[in-house]
Amino acid sequence: MIKMMKKRNSLLSKLSCLTLLMVFCQFYIVPVKGEAPVNLKPFRVAVIIGDQWNDPAGYLVDLPKHEGSYSGYDATPEVNGETDFHDLIVLLKSWCIPFDIIRLDQQLLDRYMFLDINGRAKYGTIIWDVNKSEHLQPQDYSIITEMVKNYGLGLIALSDRISQQEIQDILGLKYRGSWESNASLEIKNSHFINDKISSPFVIDTGIPAHLQRQQADLLEGTLPLVMQGPYAQVTAREYPSGSHVVWFGSDHSYMFSFQGMRTIFRRAITWTIGYALFRTWENDIIMIMDDPGGAANNYLEHWHYPELREETIEKFLIAPLLKHKAVLNINFVPAFVNEGKRMLEPTWKNSFTDGFGTQQDYISSKKGYDKGIKQGVFEVLCHGLTHMQPDLVSKPGWYGSPNDMEKSEVGWYREFGDTRRKDEIPAAEQLWRMKTAIEWLTEQFGVVPLEFCPGGLGSSVSYFNNTAKIAGKAGFGWNGWESGYLGKDMVITGWKFLELLNPL
């Protein structure tokens, strides 16, 4: 099965950062107009949060669950948890902006979080997203004032996460509170970060109509850049130290649900640091093909098809890809479940007629894929080890079942979430399968797969059995399809903003 995706900046940022699809990029440093390209601040961001990260170990970033509270509009509890932290991290990873996270529910602010041993700034700007919570450690917020006014670090503060008087003073405003409003967001005044932004802003589809509007009184020297009725929702301010500070208002869970706001936010990072580092791409399409090598097409009636032969691969895949200088990314399955032997074995070694009377020539298929990899038109991705349940024996049992009985149940063909028995796959079993898949694909094709895509998107979602978290531990860099970033630093699920335009 081949799927095509129109290229989005956010998606290719992720893939490019991880070199998953071998997308080659160029770096450009773009100074803000009027800024001299000397004494550049570090191109790195310090993200400061409260207790929004629901993983105490600081590794898994996922969308919060329902809070069980009432929205005020419906008769049943249905309010989602706050998403500002999750959305912020998705944006930074999408744009390949290096960052560190400081969480004030576990850490105490210290000036040497922001300075190196020689007293030099380690960051170009600070993003302040500290919610009001009784779980925060006692803090000396004057350290942020010192970093901005004495060391020239930039500051970007978000929404209502500015209850601290020191932060309001730096921003040059007095915060009142937030109340609902559906008034449009419109550009005010002319500035680098709002230049040529469409006004009024258009909200993403599927976003609730009733959002919180922040209200604040602006002090002298604070410039409003986006208004919602009579209230500023984006402001800017400059300091003699060279610091630039920006405040973003709007609803903290939906503030990035406007393309205009996302673009302004990316520019605010550029303005507060003083320059931008970004990537460019030449291609317009990402093509991905699923399932070669798996056993599911031999047994599952509604997913039954023959493995492609060598000549078919050469004629209909390799030749057009070479002609158009394109690359096809393939989610391979390196292990085959052999029902006759009741065991798995390496794929690509057999040619036989399956139970539906279809010739399955894995040997010929492998020759074709080898040619495409050698000619540089195929990239090797990982679709798991077998694309099938680890346990095919326990009730109701897959082994020995006719094709029109248990074998016809699609739940058997999900490897990392037991959708047939409505259960999860234990973490150790998942990790073994992922690591073995990497070893076998590397042996079979001479290429180490960097992307992982669970077969049928079947995954385990509890914290300890979380498939994405385990895939990051296994060494993968991206969780397809569009599921999120995997890394040694963190794992991000529930990816958003796939329609990001050029942020500058």
Biggest sheet: strands side by side, in what order?
5-3-6-7-13-12-11-9
CATH fold call of the largest domain: Rossmann fold
Mean pLDDT: 90
CATH 2nd-level architecture of the largest domain: 3-Layer(aba) Sandwich
Beta content: 15-25%
How many separate domains make up the residues?
A: 2
Shape verdict: elongated
Q: Give the termini distance in whole angstroms.
A: 36 Å
Low-confidence stretches: 4-28
Class per helix and strand makeup:
alpha/beta
What is the number of E strands?
Answer: 27
Helical proportion? 10-25%
Largest β-sheet summary: 8 strands, mixed
Report on this model:
22% of the residues lie in helices and 24% in strands. The chain is built from 10 helices and 27 strands. It has helices at 9-18, 84-94, 142-151, 165-171, 259-273, 296-299, 310-323, 362-374, 427-445, 467-474, and strands at 2-6, 26-31, 45-49, 60-61, 99-103, 125-129, 154-158, 173-181, 185-187, 211-218, 223-228, 231-238, 244-248, 275-280, 285-290, 328-332, 335-338, 343-346, 351-353, 359-361, 378-382, 417-418, 423-424, 451-452, 478-479, 484-485, 491-492. Helix 9 (427-445) crosses helix 10. The longest helix has 19 residues, at 427-445.
